[in-house]
Every structure is written in structure tokens, then in C-alpha cells.
Amino acid sequence: MSIEYEVRNGNLVWIKNPITGVVSYVVDLSAKSFAFTLGGGGGAQPSDNSHPAVSAEQIREVTAGCPFCPGNEHLSPRELLRVGPEQVAGWREKSGRDGASWVIRAFNNLFPRIPDELTGNRNESYVVVEDPRHFVDEPKSLDDFLFSGALGEEHFFHLLAVDADVARHSLSNPAVHSVVIRKNQGRQSGASQPHPHQQIIGSPTALPALEAEARAQRENPGLWRELIELTERFELLLTSADGVISYASPIGTFPRSYDVIMPEFRGLITELSREQLKSFARALHQILRILGPMPLDYEIHQGHGLPLHAHVNARVYPYSNVAGTLNLPSSLIERTVAARHMLKRR
């Protein structure tokens, strides 16, 4: 079954998500206020530069209690692997951390998403700490946390390489048949720790979201190619290079969602060549740079016959699913065109 949608006067009016059944209607939201829902703001914003910087003592107090900060490694389970500063070109110069002993760390999550007894009595939930830094450089407030889009492109590639290594480790467990990579950034996204990190979860069965995508793909084998063609038609395409395509999704979970997809690659992230992984990481990193410090989440889906892909959701808009419907802002195309031009300039 083809993707259902309606066009009037050359404009998309509504589109039905073939995976979830949710219908998104394109409406003008420019005059609507979300101040109450968002607590007076539209998400994380850069601090006012007129404010004095946070003191070194304040930073020490916060980082002393953070389980992901350097010096607190003993608060986490045994380390699975780490990436050192010498492995990430230019990291010492960019970060100003000459004495750092690691850039990325991976270890088991203290709070498994799936009970151990379902995965051969082995904890298959992992945490990947993305950087030793808790705050951005010269924070103006204690809410100026480091964010994934602030990482360098080479750094982000190494982060996804660690994800692949952790996924490979999890899949070496015969009880694990599905692995997902998940990122939450900001309070509104449900992040339990502000220090930038990801979760990797190994499951004994196909995770429900992947199962739903695989079911939709069986019903419409051309699903992903059709979706990509629609994004091209409605000017929602962001990038297309080296077998990786990114676009603003008209069927996302939130009003501002993006996908990164390798339509011709149906394997696991562990099976990508170094160059393929670099291309995938670059496309995902570009979207994270556009979104900056705002609340967001992303998941990387793989396996079960699906093309390798990531779903990115900006949480700057409140979640407003009403009876299986969503509103897409009519400014979606203009915003996507602006983002595409920005990427070309970089």
C-alpha cells in the first residue's frame, strides 16, 4: 500500500504515517503561543552573553556529583571500552583539556532497560559517555550543558564507531537479536543526566518500533524510496551524498523531526565500512548541529531487513498527538530550505 496523503493547490495538506497510522495535518501555527506548555520558552537557548560566567567553584560543585564526569569513573560499572584523546584528531586543541585521559567511555547501565534474565542473565543495557566535558566553554549559567551538536565531526564519527563496537559486543550474546542506539538531550526529552551520553539496548526480540517498521515495509516494499521521493517533491530533502540521505520528515513523531537513511544498505551498523560509517555519522551530525542545544532525541534503527536509519525528534514543540493526529507547521518547507542552505555554506 502506498503512502496516503493529499495535495491541494500544490501544497501538502495531510499525510498518514504508514507505520503508526498517525495523520499529520499541515497548518499555520505562527500565531499560536506555546509559552505555557514550554514554561515560558521554546527550549534550550544560548545564555545571555551579558551575564557573568559561572564560577570555577560552581562548576566543581556540579561536576563532583556527576557520575559521568572525569574523576568519578568509580561511580559507574566496569568500563567496556574507551577512546583516548590521541585517537580523535584535534580534540585536545578544541576542548582545551590537555590532561584528559579519555574522550568517550562505554559501560553497562546501572538500570537495565530489559531485565537480565531475558538476555541470558547478562545486562545488555549500556551507556556511552560522549565527552568528558559537562558544560560548554565559558558557561553563562548552570544550564549551559555541552550538547551533541557541539562535538566535532571527527569526534562524532568516533562516537558512532564506539556505538558499533558496543552493538557488536551485545550481539555476541546469543540471547540478543536486536540492538537500538538511543540519545536523549535536555529535560523535555526525558534525559536523566545532563552530561551528554547515549544508551544502547540489546533485546531478545525485535524491538516494537523496529517490528512496526518491518511490518509496514512488508506491506509496501517500496516504502522508504517512496518517502524519499515525497521529501524531494515537497522540498524537504536536506542532503544526499555517498549513499546517505537526510530530510525533514513529514511523518515524524513530533512536528519537527528528521530522518537519516541509507536506503540501499540493509545491514547493521557493525557491518559498515569506515567510509560508510563516516558518511552516516556526518549526515546525522549535521542535523544535530542545526538543532544545537535544544531538547531532542534520536534513535538509530537497524536489522530485520530495514535500511539503516536514524529518527531525530526536536522537542521544541510540545507533543500534541490528539486522537492519532498531529499538526505540522506550514513553515516546515521554509525552515528546511534555510537549513539546506546553511549546510551548503559550512
Question: What's this entry about, in short?
Answer:
This protein is α+β, with helices and mostly antiparallel strands.
Oligomer: single chain
Residues in β-strands, percent = 15-25%
End-to-end gap: 39 Å
Overall pLDDT metric: 91
* Strand order across the largest sheet: 4-5-6-8-7-12-13-11-10-9
Number of alpha- plus pi-helical segments: 7
Q: Which class do the helix and strand fractions yield?
A: alpha+beta
Tell me, briefly, the overall form: globular
Please report the total strand number as a whole number.
Answer: 14
Radius of gyration: 20 Å
Helix content: 25-40%
How would you characterize the largest beta sheet? Answer: 10 strands, antiparallel
Succession of helices and strands: EEEHEHEEHEEHHEEEHEEEH
Poorly predicted segments:
40-46
Give a written overview of the molecule.
The structure is a single chain. By secondary structure, this protein is an alpha+beta fold. 25% of the residues lie in helices and 22% in strands. It is built from 7 helices and 14 strands. α3 (153-171) crosses α6.
What brief labels describe this structure?
25% helix; alpha+beta; 346 residues; 22% strand
